Amino acid sequence: KNEVEQSPQNLTAQEGEFITINCSYSVGISALHWLQQHPGGGIVSLFMLSSGKKKHGRLIATINIQEKHSSLHITASHPRDSAVYICAVSHMYSGGGADGLTFGKGTHLIIQP
Amino acid sequence: DAGITQSPRHKVTETGTPVTLRCHQTENHRYMYWYRQDPGHGLRLIHYSYGVKDTDKGEVSDGYSVSRSKTEDFLLTLESATSSQTSVYFCAISERQGPTRTQYFGPGTRLTVL
User: What residues of B are in contact with residue A42 (Cβ under 8 Å)?
Assistant: First the structure.
């Protein structure tokens, strides 16, 4: 069973700060996912990556397969970035190849104006 | 928007009653999943489906059953609800993008078992 650990659990920062959220996992994976969940809201997929780095707007996700570690960065943070950020890993289950996800417990991010 | 709806969105029921949650998709995706989200545990996989009538268990499947008789619908049933099944339930579908798949989540169903 893959263990997915996120840090920090909670993070409060000022608007404009550079934010880093870390994720580590214990066994090999097919891909790593970063998800965003606003309070009372649904879950949105931000990135899926299996190597290297991806960028979307002010968000950057990196992964180091050898070290089993990924980071999510937010540049020029804004109060609307306040949300729970969840790391998840996909791996092949037996019987059909469906990639069920194993999740970290999430990082609660608050960006203060 | 991957065209995923869940019903009901909120439900309060009593211990021992059967409950069925429905996930409906409009995109004809093969893979569908049920997760539950609980404070301190995060999201956990209950069951998943890789085609009509093809389902398998996830990490926390005890007390739950699923059925998929049509591509677009994936039903989660609690045969006899217990208070420990109070949770927020998310359905997800996956869409192939290369060798792995992005998952898209429904809006969630908040279930309270009294």
Answer: 90, 105-108
